[in-house]
Amino acid sequence: MVREFRLPDIGEGLTEAEIVRWLVAVGEQVEPDQPIVEVETDKTVVEIPSPWAGTVISHGGAEGDVIEVGQILMTIAEAGEAPPEPGSDLDAEPQEMEQPESPTRADPEPIVGTLSEEAEVLAPPTAGQAVSSSAVKALPVVRKLARDHDVDLSTIERSGPGGRITRADVEAVIASAATPPVAEKAEETERSGPEHAVHDITVGAGHGISDEHLVEPPVAESRPRPGERKPMSTLRRTIAANMAKSWSEIPHVTTFDDVDATRLLEVRMALGERHGMKIPMEALVIKAVLPALDEFPEFNAELDGDDLVLHATKEIGIAVDTPGGLLVAVIHDADDKSVMELAGEVRRLGEGARDRSLAPDELTGQTFTVSNIGAVGGGHGTPIVPHGTVAILSVGAARLRPVVYDDDLAIAPVMPLSLSYDHRVIDGAMGRRFMALVLENLEEPALFLAG
Questions:
Q1: What domains sit in the chain, N to C, each tagged with a CATH number?
Q2: Closest by Cα among 53, 49, 50, 51 to 81
Q3: Short-list 142, 98, 97, 116, CA closest to 42
């Protein structure tokens, strides 16, 4: 019996994945739970194991191909059974479609999120069959964009891999439809009636010029601009979709402040010397933020319809700059960890995010986010609140600046802070009180290290 193993939803609402590397060749034997392929999802690279023992009959795609959830990933002949001869009809044998259970989650979406609609399994049209919008290759988020703007997908030029329609393809059609050509505008004006038409222009006494003598200015032909069209990666498309979702649905407010980081940097250096390692700034900032989340639980929450869900635990997301784009890794139960344990988690998750080796549950479920843009030289900014949360704190690089203490001028390392929050949940006064407590803790680390 030949079984079809179809790409499962391995969590996070997966709709498609790119085949990175086959670990088992056609004709080789596999055992249950043996890794058979590496696939890249929207945030990580994972190994998918075989659910059965047997002989690999075929692969569902080549390395670099993108396949959707539900499409055949591999066909496997049962163990002890001779594989069918080349060219034989695999459909003659009954085929089992059972799949391993896929994990479900109710966690809020990460900053890079997931595509929200279900995947569609698309079959190419037969010869002579008209191509409909439902038969072309396009992600659900792209289909929704097309529907919202009444764009027929079957008429669009496709620039994506394998003839896939990208978001940029649809946006180009929308933009062209929003700006009709000059000649078309002139024709509409002429059809609008005599009250809108100019029939005579008087230049001077007794000198009239009929509109038939007017010369239309030449219309410049649009020319394609030189450049390279580069399809976005799965990760970058997901980042784009979820950034747009957060920005369009969450009314953002950002408050700014500066903190004298003298004591914070002294403590960081002392801890590093004591433990023989560099302490990530994120570990200290998280530790300083945790008491503020206790004092103002609205910042460690999620808006669900008309209800605000206050989370009992603190799952702190940390923004990680990776070669493929921004990822948010999550430190679960951060309030139960010491500074040194947080430091270890920041380093481990940062390395895993950059080499795309983190598990799905390490990239989802944050309740509050810290973004250290100071690591790349940033200062103040306007961070976007991750969907499913209500606030994010951005920390800039500490730089020596003049400050005033008791009417005396001094030079101190000043670290910029930017706090963005959902204005539906948090008012300006509460935002300032939260920021004031964070500032107090950062300026005197003994206040949070003693806790």
A1: 2-92 (2.40.50.100), 107-192+225-249 (4.10.320.10), 252-449 (3.30.559.10)
A2: 53
A3: 116
Burial class (CB in 10 A: 0-12, 13-18, 19+), 426: buried
pTM metric for this prediction: 0.60
> Residue 41 burial (CB < 10 Å; 0-12/13-18/19+)?
buried
Please state, in angstroms and rounded to a whole number, the distance separating the CA atoms of residues 224 and 221. 10
Instruction: Report CA-CA distances (Å) from 409 to 203, 317, 402, 404, 405.
Output: 72, 38, 7, 5, 6
Q: Round to whole Å and give the CA distance between 238 and 41.
A: 10
Answer positive or negative: Cα dihedral of 44, 47, 50, 56: positive
Per-residue pLDDT reduced to its tens digit, 63-96: 888 888 889 999 999 876 666 655 554 443 434 4
**Annotated catalytic residue: which of 252, 332, 380, 423?**
423
| C-alpha torsion angle, residues 182, 185, 187, 192 (rounded to 10) | -160
Closest CA to 48 of 36, 58, 57: 36
Residue 260 CB burial class (10 angstroms; 0-12, 13-18, ≥19) = buried
> What are the Cα distances from residue 364, in Å, to 11, 93, 113, 183, 343?
10, 41, 8, 52, 19
Output the CA torsion 123→126→128→132 (10° steps).
-10
Q: Distance (Å, rounded) from C-alpha 181 to C-alpha 186?
A: 9
Catalytic residue status for 423: yes
pLDDT tens digits along 238-292:
889 889 999 999 999 999 999 999 999 999 999 999 999 999 999 999 999 999 9
